């Protein structure tokens, strides 16, 4: 407010000085006419002419002359109730070309005086001087300044009160959602993931609340999956251990003889337990990115044909018919060991979960940018709602495709991690043959066009 007050006073005084400059120009024009009528001699002018013209310049300040100028009025006629009072008249003096004062009071020296030349026939014949205003002098000016100061203070206080009120409202509007965010973050840090904090907001804070809620849901889902995985792993480990414990106790109690048949049975359970532990270890490595990959250019068809050829006899013995069709352009950049593991798991999965008699159709084709491998088998199928869960570790489908071999439900989860490491995609769908369709998409090596 002090700065605004100072700026107002400076601006008002500059305005007054500008009006004084305008007044002197009007007075100079009037004096020029009188000078010419006095035969271009200042000494020939009546002694009261300058004073009358000075007073008249105040009464006419800010107005344009209309018609010929009348003789200057007497002092008593120069002022009316609507004219500036006498104390508004600024001391003005007239000087000749030699700098001698001809009329008016002595003007004190000023660094920036207000002066206007008087011309006659385009020649300088005199100079009008006036002192610029630097401060308020009259009671009216002081009263006007004080009134403006009080008005400025009142306006400033009103603006300050309004700003405080608006600031309080804005602070309340902003702090309320921030407090909710802090509360939500605190609950997340405590492990309470089921306390939504989102409001019906469409700003950045609303988006942040929604993201925190989604984070809580994801953390809750991960925690549930982790607990479910631990329970499933415990169950999978308990089954072969229980069988082993039962058979060993039966041998110890003499219920079963210790012969080669019993040794083979125990060896089968140990092998099953070993494979389960190896799969769990492999899955954990793939989840944390601990599997090593050594990429090289290779043909998918060569690996796929080798795997299908190795299982064809076993498939026929199980009442299953395997067919394979491959396109020529199927070179990709992949780790040969992991690719072999991926394709083997998918073929073994189809063999394990297809009812006899049945068919397994494997197709390998390529587009302009990727290789697509489709594994289709006949019944039984899986509910569409459970297709996405097939790639979860230890997930068991419905009874129609329940595990009949030593698999523990880890193969597809490992396959998904291997495909992701190759920047590919794997999905499960219902097969047109009546069973399950697994589709793998891997990026194809781009070939230069030599045409």
Compose a concise summary of this entry.
The protein contains 8 helices and 11 strands.
Topology readout:
Layout: H1 2-37, H2 49-59, E1 92-95, E2 101-103, E3 114-120, E4 123-130, H3 139-189, H4 204-252, H5 260-287, E5 296-299, H6 300-317, E6 320-326, E7 331-334, H7 336-353, E8 358-366, E9 370-378, H8 411-421, E10 425-430, E11 434-443
Parallel strand pairs: 6-8
Antiparallel strand pairs: 1-2, 1-4, 3-4, 5-7, 8-9, 9-11, 10-11
Helix pairs in contact: 1-2, 3-4, 4-5, 5-8, 6-7, 7-8
Structure description:
This protein is of the alpha+beta class. The protein folds into 3 domains: about 1-130, no CATH class; about 205-285, Signal transduction histidine kinase, dimerisation/phosphotransfer (DHp) domain (Helix Hairpins), CATH 1.10.287.130; about 295-445, Histidine kinase-like ATPase, C-terminal domain (Heat Shock Protein 90, 2-Layer Sandwich). The protein is built from 8 helices and 11 strands. It has helices at about 1-35, 50-60, 140-190, 205-250, 260-285, 300-315, 335-355, 410-420, and strands spanning about 90-95, 100-105, 115-120, 125-130, 295-300, 320-325, 330-335, 360-365, 370-380, 425-430, 435-445. The strands form 3 sheets. It has a 5-stranded mixed β-sheet. A hairpin with a 3-residue loop joins strand 10 and strand 11. Helix 1 (about 1-35) packs across helix 2 (about 50-60) and helix 7 (about 335-355) runs antiparallel to helix 8 (about 410-420). The chain is rod-shaped and about 155 Å long.
């Amino acid at each position: 407010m002090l700065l605004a007050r100072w700026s107002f006073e400076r601006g008002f005084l500059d305005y007054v000085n500008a009006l004084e400059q305008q007044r002197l120009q009007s007075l100079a024009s009037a004096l020029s006419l009188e000078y010419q009528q006095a035969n271009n001699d200042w000494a020939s002018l009546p002694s009261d002419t300058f004073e009358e013209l000075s007073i008249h310049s105040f009464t006419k300040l800010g107005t344009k002359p209309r018609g010929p100028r009348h003789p200057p009025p007497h002092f008593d006629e120069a002022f009316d109730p609507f004219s500036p009072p006498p104390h508004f008249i600024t001391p003005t003096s007239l000087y000749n070309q030699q700098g001698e004062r001809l009329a008016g009071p002595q003007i004190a020296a000023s660094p920036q005086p207000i002066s206007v030349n008087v011309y006659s026939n385009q020649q300088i014949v005199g100079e009008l001087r006036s002192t610029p205003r630097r401060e308020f002098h009259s009671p009216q000016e002081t009263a006007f300044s004080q009134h403006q100061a009080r008005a400025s203070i009142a306006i400033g206080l009103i603006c300050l009160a309004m700003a405080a009120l608006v600031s309080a409202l804005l602070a309340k509007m902003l702090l309320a959602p921030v407090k909710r965010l802090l509360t939500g973050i605190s609950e997340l840090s405590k492990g309470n993931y089921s306390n939504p904090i989102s409001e019906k907001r469409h700003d950045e804070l609303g988006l942040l609340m929604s993201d925190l809620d989604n984070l809580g849901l994801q953390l809750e889902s991960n925690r549930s999956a982790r607990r479910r995985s631990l329970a499933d792993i415990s169950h999978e480990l308990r089954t072969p251990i229980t069988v082993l414990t039962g058979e060993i106790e039966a041998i110890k109690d003499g219920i079963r003889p210790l012969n080669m048949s019993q040794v083979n049975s125990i060896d089968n359970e140990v092998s099953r337990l070993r494979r389960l532990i190896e799969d769990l270890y492999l899955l954990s490595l793939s989840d944390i990115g601990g599997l090593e990959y050594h990429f090289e250019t290779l043909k998918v068809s060569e690996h796929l044909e080798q795997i299908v050829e190795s299982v064809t006899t076993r498939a026929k013995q199980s009442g299953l018919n395997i067919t394979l069709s491959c396109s020529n352009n199927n070179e990709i950049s992949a780790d040969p060991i992991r690719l072999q593991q991926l394709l083997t798991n998918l073929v073994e999965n189809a063999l394990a979960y297809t009812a006899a008699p049945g068919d397994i159709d494997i197709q390998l084709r390529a587009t302009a940018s990727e290789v697509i491998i489709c594994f289709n088998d006949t019944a039984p199928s899986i509910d569409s709602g459970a297709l996405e869960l097939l790639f979860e570790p230890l997930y068991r489908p419905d009874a129609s495709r329940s595990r009949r071999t030593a698999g523990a439900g880890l193969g597809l989860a490992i396959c998904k991690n291997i495909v992701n490491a190759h920047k590919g995609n794997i999905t499960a769908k219902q097969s047109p043959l009546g069973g399950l369709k697994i589709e793998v998409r891997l990026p194809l090596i781009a070939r230069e066009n030599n045409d």
